[in-house]
Design a protein that fits this description.
By secondary structure, the protein is mostly beta strands. It has a 22-stranded antiparallel barrel. A 5-stranded mixed sheet has the order 1-4-5-2-3. A 5-stranded antiparallel sheet has the order 12-11-10-19-16. The radius of gyration is 31 Å and the shape is elongated. The protein contains 13 helices and 47 strands.
């Protein structure tokens, strides 16, 4: 195994262990058992299957469920449930700790905030909010990131150390589990029947010597004849990786230098009209001149005063302040206790406390003032700078708003873009606390000659977060400090502000007046009660008719409270307003398994499954969702199965009640000259009709978009269909070359109507310019200089989403030989269709094989794993493949980094118009792991591994918002990762 390039991981060898997971293989209830012993009571657990409520092992393969065992989890070398699930072939794009969200993305239109520091899971590319996350079959509370009320679960609130296995159902399951289970269900099963103690130490580091991860897990359990107890504690710390340490992420768009840098610079950009000459200047102070002299007689770019015309070289590289990997510390404690009153009844209680402390960082916050500021803030967009300000070098007032009472047009301030590096980078610190308590009774009873199982459960969970923001500014205090000095002097603490000098000219007194510390808070609570019963009703011609039924009550509460400064409209950063709401739901379901054929000419068995759930919501009314399935055991070797399900997803608190907030998105305005100087691409007549003067320039690559909830939203409805087979050929069983061979093939199709989402902002703007249709243009307004100063992009029930594809898997266990035992698994997902269409027929850009909006849908993802065991030795080799993707180059089309850019025409002035696409090449990652178990105490397992052995960098992404790659699809640049683990059982 090769050593790391800088810091050999050998120096960090620490004790660690591979968890020896106890098998939940307790036999079924037997009449001969002693009624005072506990094992028979645990039978309920052995037959509970994700994807059905019926406790019957015979129907385990009825639905396509993928199970990740403790061994599968540890083979990844990862320490987060979210990171592990995002490597599944059927997983789509979702947030993780590689997203440096705060200060960069702003609020999503879902009303769920930024999600800083969270890790989520998306199945079938339908979005994380359409995946239901359960823990031991009970819903987990949705996330709070102190920036909104989320509709998804933060998997970083669940310690990996407490996990026994993870079941992933990639099928619609609203009839069984209720709302949110459109794309599938993730059921996290916690560790329970555990005897003795276990200590696990983890240490990992990237090959560049950064991004160090450390972890300690402690587990202890005991079993008696009447009870069992499990206690677990976990601590994981992940260090940051700065974007400036990798070539790919050092600039806003890789391969384009400063072209797409910011207009907000440490020296300042000033676009002003001199009222004495009528000349409009776009200038910036000369390097090193912190007290620049302005000569009004110099009207061009050949200047000898203290300024020069603003150019690409003057733009600010904000990218180097970002993070490739955000730091976090996760600490959790979990326990559960079960007491068996007798063979038929037992009680349980479980509790969890978890804290996540995470950090995001962005470049020093820019201050944009004037007509072209485009912030939507009345103070910034309507700024007035007094001629009497002692630092104003121009000698005249700078005003963004014309006074209608005077004949002159006083609006001469188009843009001031000043980035006070003196105030430091923006730092966003999140503290997220999760508490969970659950209790219940489980048991069985005899009805005639049949055994019935029942359970009653209650759980309450809470997720609360606080975010502290350093490095932002108070725009009201900025306005006061730039305005009339006498008005400033009348306010305690106010001092005139210098935005006209270079870096270092903002004094500590100035910063103290304009730079607050901002605190935002959010929380969500979920209370739930469930009662279930299952068993065999009576015998039919082909076997017993099995049934399950249950009731459920849930109450959701959520709120988001931004800092009072933000609520008042004085925050210079991304604005938002408070959100709060609650709703409850009552549900009842029933499920049947009907045997249609017993062994005969038509095979061994044919079973029909029927399920339905009635849901009554306090927000919108009632809904009924059915599901139908067939399971045909043609022979011992061949199983055929199919399911059809109707589903729905109720809008979340954030989607319903989320207040207006802002997202700063990467958007190319087709009516404006590009940031790189490329000609406008929109229809000139339409742009003129929208109020855009000829030659207007887009000053920044980001455009502020107003997002937020909609209390008129209706539930999404969905149809899901799967059909597949499991073939275990007899010639592959107990043969000289094979102990077992399983081939699985599944077709899936999902269709969602009334999908709750906003139209893609770039698509909305393009359609507005192309059609001038109020459907797209309402809510988009422009300033007198042509730039967008308001862009409404709120949630609606947006048309439809349709996707289908195939899963093809191979599982092969070879016979044990002198060389050991080998096991091969090869899992593949092929996406054949994905289309999202708005209510008016507008096609959204996201589709198969396309990279857009920091997410991708590869047409083929594949994971192959080869495991080896021989005596005390074990090893694994994992190969991960992602197929080729294509993206639109946008304004980067004229650069060599755009693989397929070309001139497609010329504008009226004879300037070339470029367009093109960029190919993100297919990539294959290799992961290796080697372990050895020592016979010390109950076993000491030492494991070392390397992920991304060949240190492959992700393909360059020109459309991605940060770091030059898609963080939801690929490993980070310089992503070779070494880790060791010591696992001691005693």
């Amino acid at each position: 195994m090769n050593a790391p390039r800088r810091h050999p991981l050998a120096k960090a060898v620490s004790l660690s262990l591979l968890a020896l997971v106890p098998m939940l293989a307790t036999p079924l209830l037997a009449a001969a058992q002693d009624p005072d012993t506990a094992p028979s009571a645990t039978t309920l657990d052995t037959v509970q299957v994700t994807g059905t409520r019926i406790k019957k092992a015979e129907i385990e393969t009825q639905t396509p469920v993928q199970t990740l065992s403790r061994d599968d989890i540890e083979r990844t070398g990862l320490t987060s449930i979210g990171d592990i699930l995002q490597e599944l072939t059927g997983s789509g794009s979702a947030l993780n700790t590689k997203f440096n969200s705060s200060g960069n993305f702003g609020f999503s239109p879902n009303g769920d905030g930024v999600g800083a520091g969270s890790a989520q899971v998306d199945l079938r590319n339908l979005g994380a909010k359409r995946v239901l996350v359960l823990v031991d079959g009970m819903r987990w509370v949705n996330e709070s990131s102190a920036s909104g009320v989320g509709a998804t679960t933060d998997l970083n609130t669940i310690p990996l150390a407490i996990v026994e296995r993870i079941d992933v159902l990639e099928d619609g399951a609203s009839s069984l589990y209720g709302s949110d289970a459109i794309a599938g269900v993730v059921n996290i099963i916690t560790r329970r029947n555990f005897e003795g103690g276990q200590v696990t130490l983890n240490y990992g580091q990237y090959g560049e010597g950064d991004g160090t991860s450390r972890g300690v897990d402690v587990a202890w359990g005991m079993n008696t004849e009447r009870s069992n107890l499990f206690l677990g504690a976990s601590w994981v710390e992940q260090d940051a990786i700065s974007a400036n340490t990798r070539e790919q992420s050092r600039f806003p768009v890789p391969g384009t230098g400063l072209t797409f840098g910011s207009s907000g610079t440490p020296r300042g950009r000033f676009i002003i009209t001199d009222p004495n000459t009528g000349v409009t200047h776009d200038i910036t102070p000369n390097e090193g001149d912190n007290d620049p002299f302005y000569d009004p007689a110099q009207t061009g770019c050949e200047r000898t005063d203290g300024y020069h015309c603003f150019a690409t070289a003057d733009r600010f590289n904000f990218a180097e302040y970002n993070m490739l990997l955000t730091p976090s510390t996760r600490t959790g404690v979990f326990g559960q206790y079960r007491f068996y009153f007798n063979d038929n009844v037992h009680a349980y209680a479980k509790a969890l406390v978890n804290r996540r402390e995470s950090v995001n960082q962005a470049a020093p916050e820019p201050i944009f003032l004037g007509l072209d500021a485009g912030t939507g803030n009345a103070f910034a967009d309507g700024m007035f700078v007094s001629a009497d300000n002692p630092y104003n070098p121009f000698g005249f007032d700078l005003a963004s708003i014309d006074d209608p009472a005077t004949p002159e047009n006083e609006a001469n301030l188009i843009l001031i873009g000043r980035r006070p590096v003196e105030g430091g980078a923006r730092v966003f610190e999140q503290v997220v606390d999760t508490q969970y308590f659950g209790a219940g009774l489980e048991g069985s009873f005899e009805a005639g000659a049949r055994t019935w199982f029942w359970d009653v459960n209650f759980a309450h969970s809470r997720n609360e977060a606080e975010q502290t923001n350093f490095g932002s500014y108070d725009i009201r205090n900025i306005a006061l400090a730039l305005g009339d000095p006498d008005a400033c002097a009348a306010v305690q603490g106010c001092v005139p502000l210098n935005v006209f000098g270079g870096p270092g000219t903002l004094t500590p007194e100035m910063l103290a007046w304009i730079q607050p510390v901002v605190h935002d808070r959010s929380e969500q609570e979920l209370s739930q009660f469930t009662a279930n019963v299952s068993g065999d009703l009576f015998d039919l011609w082909a076997g017993p008719l099995s049934a399950a039924a249950g009731i459920e009550h849930r109450k959701y509460e959520g709120s988001y409270n931004p800092d009072p400064l933000t609520v008042a409209g004085f925050y210079n950063g991304v604005p938002s307003l408070p959100t709060s709401g609650e709703y409850d739901v009552n549900e009842a379901y029933v499920e049947f398994n009907v045997p249609l054929i017993e062994q005969g000419a038509f095979g061994k068995s044919l079973d029909l499954s029927l399920a339905g759930r009635y849901s009554d919501y306090s927000t919108f009314g009632s809904q009924f969702t059915p599901k139908y399935g067939l399971r045909w055991q043609v022979a011992d070797e061949l199983l055929l199965r199919a399911t059809y399900a109707e589903g729905f997803r109720a809008p979340s608190i954030g989607e319903l009640y989320g207040s207006a907030s802002r997202a700063d998105l990467q958007i190319d305005d087709p009516c404006l000259v590009g940031v790189d100087g490329s000609p406008a691409t929109g229809d000139a007549a339409n742009c003129a009709a929208l109020g855009v003067p000829p030659g207007a320039v887009q000053t920044n690559s980001q455009i502020s978009v107003t997002t937020g909830g909609n209390d008129q939203l209706q539930p999404e409805t969905a149809n899901s269909f799967t059909a597949g087979m499991v073939y275990s050929p007899g010639f592959g069983a107990n043969a000289s070359w094979s102990d077992r061979l399983d081939l699985e093939l599944t077709f899936y199709r999902h269709s969602i109507e009334g999908a709750v989402q906003a139209i893609d902002a770039q698509t909305q703007l393009d359609l507005c310019v192309e059609t001038l249709d109020p459907l797209y243009c309402d809510g988009i307004t422009r300033t007198s200089v042509g730039s967008i100063n308001a862009f409404g992009n709120r949630l609606t029930n947006l048309g439809s989403i349709k996707t289908d594809g195939w899963d093809a898997d191979v599982f092969w266990t070879l016979p044990e030989t002198a060389a050991g035992r080998f096991k091969l698994s090869w899992q593949n997902t092929f996406v054949t269709r994905y289309e999202a269409i708005g209510g008016a027929g507008q096609v959204q850009p996201r589709t198969v094989g396309i990279e857009v909006t920091d997410s991708a849908i590869p047409d083929w993802t594949s994971t192959a794993a080869l495991d080896w065991d021989r005596g005390n030795w074990s090893a694994a080799w994992v190969v991960r493949h992602i197929s080729e993707l294509t993206e639109d180059c946008g304004d980067a089309a004229s650069f060599a980094v755009c693989s397929d850019g070309a001139v497609v025409g010329q504008d009226d002035d004879g300037n070339d118009i470029w367009a093109g696409t960029n190919t993100l090449d297919a990539i294959t990652y290799h992961d290796l792991q080697l372990g050895y178990e020592f016979d010390w105490f109950k076993g000491l397992q030492l494991t070392g591994g390397v992920n991304n052995v060949l240190d492959k960098d992700p393909p360059l992404c020109l459309s991605c918002s940060l770091n030059g790659y898609d963080a939801s699809t690929y490993d980070i640049p310089g992503g070779r990762y070494y880790y060791v683990r010591a696992n001691l059982r005693f």
